[in-house]
Every structure is written in structure tokens, then in C-alpha cells.
Design brief:
The protein has 346 residues and is an all-alpha fold. It is 73% helix and 0% strand. Helix 1 packs antiparallel against helix 6, helix 8 runs antiparallel to helix 12 and helix 10 runs antiparallel to helix 14. The relative contact order is 0.13.
């Protein structure tokens, strides 16, 4: 019987990650492995539900901190020690850090009673789940291409290797600042509201600023701003997923960016446009998700008031009958399109 739970998933991710990192591969393949232990992100939400966004943002800020160290140190390590030893040193660092996390982390599955099925097909019948999936897929396409293409873009416009490593460090610095800030503001302004705003802003900034960033100073500015905005998904995915599906249900991009590069002229123009529209598309998914959440909240409030009136008039027998959770009716889905721009904290 395979082990389940957050610690078991982390242990499997740790074993896979460090076995793969111990073999000599390209730096792109190495860096693509940094987000494997993602099952732990939902654990903070279990402990601090009212401030789940801030806790999740703090936890997600650990990855860009490592990205800053990698960006500034890996080029020197490759030159001085060579690729095989560099990868093994990074593997040891990752193994030790993740081993400490596995020893210390504790989930609350015994209290939350999460759904342990590997794939709950019933969730696919709910339109709001598809909106979350669309937001995640589109924003992650843009995030991955932006994160791993920006240093190489700096080289393409004539900057040195040292300057390109600084650009990579700055975008991770933006992530380090932006993820906790986004999580904190999402607890105040609403998780879906914050995810929609920051995702849309990242797309707009990519289209307006990145395309015209040919100098080192302007590219540094873009790297910090884009870093603060592009990591929204990992800062808010656990709270948003728990709000939409319930806490018990929460447990290929860079090749596209490489293929979009032109051989001549403005090499990265197609990549920049693609990233911008991916984030805008993800923001549109969140707009519809926002409309669904508002209409659902309003319907639950109406259902609650109706139950209270029936309880007053008919006694406790009708109370137990009326306390069932309202189902997702077709008219509920139609209402969400009319609630997209309504001012509400969701």
C-alpha cells in the first residue's frame, strides 16, 4: 500500500529530484527541477486558514531565494569546478535543505480528512475548476518562458554574461518580494481579486515594457517588476484552490519559448507577445472565476436567509432538511457572467 500525505509526496519528490540532479545535465534541465516539492504548499493553509494567502506566499518565496543564489553563483562554479561537480554540489545542497523540511513538516490530514483519491473526476464537471485550470496553465506557460528566457534575452541584446546573471537574480528578487506581498494582500483584498489583478498586470507589463527593454537599466527595472507580478500563481494557488474546490480537494513551456524565437531581427518579439497574452488570458480566466465566486456567495446568502425563515415558521424538522448544501444549478453558472466586474472582496 503506497504511503500518502504531504510528507510521503515530499519524500518521493526529494528522491527523484536529487537522483536526477546528481547526473551531469544542462543548466536549463537542472533549474527546471526546482518546483518539484509542490505538495507542501497546501500545508500552510491547513494551519492558518484566515491568513492562508500570506503563509503560502512566504513558503513560495523560498524558491526565488534559491534562484538568486543559483543565478549569482552557478556561472562561477561552472567555470571553476566544471559541470559535473557543480551539479553534485547543488544536489547536496538541495538534498540537505529538503531533508530538513521533510523532518520538520507536519500536515493535519487527520483533522482535515482530505480526499485521498489520486484523481477525482467529479471535479471536472464543475466549470469553476476548469477556470482555475485555465488560469494555472496559461500563467505557468508565461511564467516559465519569462523566468528562463530573460537572462538569455539579455545576452541577445548585447549584454555580458555577468549582466545576464544579474538580470536572472533580479527577477528572482522580484519573486522573493512579490510572493509574500501578494499573499498578504490577497488575504485583505480577496484571493481571486489579487490573482486577477497581478496576473493581468504582468501581461500588460510584458507587452509594454519588455518589448522595448534594450538597455541594461530598463531591463533591470522590468526584471524586478515582472518578478513581483509573475509569481502570483504559486503565491495564491493553494488558497484559491481551497476556496473553489474545498480544502480537502487540494493536494512544457520553455521549449515553446525556444521555438518562438526568430533566427534574425528582433529575435524575442514573438516570445514577448506570447508571454504577455498568456498572462492576459490567465487573468480573463480569473475574471470569470471571480464572477462565479460572487454569484455563489450571493446564492448561499439567499439560501441561508430562506432556511432561517423556514426554521422560524416550521421548526427544527424543516431546519435539518433545509441545511443541505446548495447544488450547482445551470442558472448559477449563467449568473457568473453578470458578476465579473461587481465590486466585491472574493
Amino acid at each position: 500500500m503506497p504511503r500518502r500525505g504531504t510528507r510521503a509526496q515530499l519524500e518521493r519528490a526529494l528522491t527523484t529530484m536529487d537522483l536526477e540532479m546528481s547526473s551531469p545535465r544542462s543548466s536549463v534541465e537542472l533549474l527546471l527541477d526546482h518546483d518539484q516539492p509542490t505538495p507542501a504548499y497546501v500545508t500552510e493553509k491547513e494551519y492558518v486558514p484566515p491568513n492562508g494567502g500570506y503563509a503560502n506566499g512566504l513558503a513560495a518565496a523560498g524558491a526565488p531565494f534559491g534562484g538568486i543564489v543559483y543565478s549569482l553563483a552557478i556561472s562561477s562554479m561552472l567555470e571553476g569546478s566544471g559541470p559535473p561537480l557543480t551539479f553534485r554540489i547543488l544536489a547536496i545542497c538541495g538534498f540537505v535543505a529538503n531533508l530538513i523540511a521533510i523532518v520538520l513538516i507536519r500536515d493535519r490530514n487527520h483533522m482535515q480528512q482530505p480526499n485521498q483519491s489520486a484523481f477525482n473526476y467529479r471535479l471536472l464537471k464543475r466549470c469553476e475548476i476548469w477556470l482555475v485550470v485555465g488560469w494555472g496553465c496559461l500563467s505557468e506557460l508565461g511564467y516559465t518562458i519569462l523566468l528562463y528566457s530573460l537572462p538569455n534575452y539579455a545576452r541577445q541584446v548585447g549584454m555580458s554574461v555577468h549582466q545576464s546573471s544579474i538580470i536572472g537574480a533580479l527577477i528572482n528578487l522580484g519573486l522573493l518580494i512579490g510572493r509574500p506581498a501578494t499573499g498578504y494582500l490577497s488575504d485583505t483584498l480577496g484571493r481571486i481579486n489579487m490573482a486577477t489583478i497581478t496576473t493581468g498586470l504582468c501581461g500588460i507589463v510584458s507587452l509594454i515594457v519588455w518589448i522595448f527593454s534594450k538597455s541594461f537599466g530598463l531591463l533591470c527595472f522590468f526584471a524586478i517588476v515582472a518578478g513581483m507580478l509573475c509569481g502570483t500563481f504559486w503565491a495564491t494557488v493553494a488558497p484559491v484552490g481551497a476556496d473553489v474546490a474545498g480544502l480537502s480537494e487540494v493536494p512544457i513551456a520553455e521549449p515553446i519559448g525556444l521555438a518562438l524565437r526568430s533566427p534574425t531581427g528582433d529575435i524575442y518579439l514573438d516570445v514577448q507577445i506570447f508571454v504577455g497574452f498568456m498572462y492576459i488570458g490567465a487573468s480573463i480566466c480569473n475574471l470569470f472565476l471571480r464572477g462565479w465566486k460572487i454569484s455563489k456567495t450571493e446564492q448561499e446568502a439567499v439560501a441561508k436567509s430562506e432556511r432561517e425563515r423556514r426554521d422560524e415558521g416550521r421548526g427544527e424538522r424543516q431546519s435539518s432538511f433545509a441545511s443541505k448544501e446548495p447544488k450547482h444549478h445551470p442558472e448559477h453558472r449563467g449568473l457568473m457572467f453578470r458578476k465579473i466586474f461587481q465590486l466585491e472582496r472574493v
